[in-house]
């Protein structure tokens, strides 16, 4: 089992490395050629749109894998999710017009940022398409197809980024080009999924069951994203674009690292479903991956501390990104452990409990950021990220121990 999981984690890692390298190039281009303030605008654009990605995800794949063993209802998943993404894109376009902007402090959402959000909002639709294809890859553990799709999209994005550096185009034009690259990756994923989408029809009863059962998990993921991204959003309202850019660069690299446990979870989930009725097997899986995650996360922390001074080579003003990045990196073990426990509890159908945990921690995160950002800016956000994840871990551990005792 571990070898099969490792193989698919490897494919996901390759996919992530490809997209991360592309993201790294885009980050360097924007940070170096546009500066911290414009990178802050880029962070505002991408963080705002990313809030809507989880509504597209909404835990639908996890429920779909439980309810449809042979992908006979793939069309229902695809069309319902795509329709939802269109509605979310329109909703975001309406919300954008009401976002505030303080000219004096360069805080909030300028007209340029608002236009960038509208351009980038098309990726919500592309995210819906790729998430649907991902359900097929996850069920059959065929993540090599995801690698292929991401390589194609990343090549397009990389070419656009290099063109931006050469032609000195505007930030919003680059945002538009990046959206096109995202679309190429999404449609490549759909093509590699090899699922029939005609004739156009939707099984309303199946879709209704899918969405109803996904509500607890979807809410948990939404709350999870809120407390992942709310710091950047609140910095956008409360601090200058310069501060948002400094923290955004640190979080950009941290975001890649905390995706690593998600790769393991994606590959493990089908096996967790098979072991859901045997707590002894779950305990063995937990012990093995806690040991593995501890080694990986500690090594990553050392690497982060050693490599973080390189931020200043992008542009001297990004030397300030070193401190928040180091603070964020110290919380890596927490993110590894919570990812594993979260999916074990999902397997055990404790989705409602996860909603309460992540909802409560999202609220805690918002309150703490509101209190401390005005005085301590991005340093507070970095510390609060670790505190919030520690609270999540304690809550998940308590629940798992309670369930473990009931099976004894």
Give the domain tally: 1
The helix content is over 70%
What is the rounded Rg? 21 Å
Number of helices: 15
Strand adjacency order, main sheet: 1-2
The low-confidence parts are none
Kindly report the average pLDDT value: 80
The main β sheet shows up as:
2 strands, antiparallel
**Structural class by SSE content:** mainly alpha
Q: Total number of β-strand segments?
A: 2
Element pattern in H and E = HHHEEHHHHHHHHHHHH
Q: What would you call the shape?
A: globular
**Beta strand %:** under 5%
Q: What is the rounded distance between the termini?
A: 25 Å
Structural overview:
By secondary structure, this protein is mainly alpha-helical. The protein is globular. The protein has one domain (2-407). Helix 2 (60-67) runs antiparallel to helix 8 and helix 6 (143-167) packs antiparallel against helix 7 (171-193). The two termini are 25 Å apart. It contains 15 helices and two strands. The chain has a two-stranded antiparallel ribbon with strand order 1-2.
């Amino acid at each position: 089992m571990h070898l099969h999981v490792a193989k698919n984690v490897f494919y996901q890692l390759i996919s992530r490395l490809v997209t991360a390298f592309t993201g790294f190039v885009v980050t360097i281009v924007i940070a170096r050629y546009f500066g911290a303030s414009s990178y802050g605008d880029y962070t505002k654009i991408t963080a705002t749109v990313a809030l809507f990605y989880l509504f597209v995800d909404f835990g639908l794949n996890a429920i779909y894998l439980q309810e449809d063993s042979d992908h006979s209802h793939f069309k229902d998943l695809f069309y319902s999710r795509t329709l939802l993404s269109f509605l979310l894109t329109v909703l975001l376009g309406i919300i954008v017009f009401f976002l505030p902007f303080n000219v004096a402090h360069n805080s909030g959402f300028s007209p340029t940022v608002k236009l960038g959000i509208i351009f980038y909002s098309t990726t919500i639709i592309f995210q819906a398409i790729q998430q649907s294809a991902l359900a097929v890859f996850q069920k059959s553990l065929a993540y090599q197809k995801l690698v292929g799709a991401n390589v194609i999209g990343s090549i397009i994005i990389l070419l656009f980024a290099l063109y931006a550096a050469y032609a000195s185009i505007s930030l919003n034009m680059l945002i538009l080009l990046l959206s096109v690259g995202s679309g190429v990756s999404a449609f490549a994923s759909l093509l590699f999924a090899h699922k029939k989408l005609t004739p156009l029809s939707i099984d309303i009863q199946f879709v209704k069951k899918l969405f109803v059962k996904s509500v607890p998990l979807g809410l948990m993921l939404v709350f999870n994203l809120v407390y992942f991204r709310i710091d950047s959003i609140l910095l956008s309202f409360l601090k200058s674009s310069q501060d948002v850019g400094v923290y955004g660069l640190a979080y950009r690299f941290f975001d890649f690292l905390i995706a690593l446990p998600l790769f393991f979870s994606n590959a493990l989930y089908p096996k967790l479903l098979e072991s859901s009725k045997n707590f002894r097997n779950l305990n063995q899986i937990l012990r093995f991956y806690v040991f593995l995650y501890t080694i990986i996360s500690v090594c990553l922390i050392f690497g982060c501390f050693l490599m973080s001074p390189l931020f200043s080579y992008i542009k001297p003003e990004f030397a300030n990104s070193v401190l928040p990045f180091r603070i964020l990196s110290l919380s890596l073990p927490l993110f590894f452990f919570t990812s594993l426990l979260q999916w074990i509890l999902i397997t055990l159908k404790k989705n409602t409990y996860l909603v309460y945990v992540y909802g409560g921690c999202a609220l805690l995160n918002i309150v703490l950021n509101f209190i401390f950002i005005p005085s301590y800016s991005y340093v507070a956000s970095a510390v609060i990220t670790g505190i919030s994840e520690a609270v999540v871990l304690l809550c998940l551990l308590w629940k798992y121990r309670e369930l473990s005792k009931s099976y004894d």
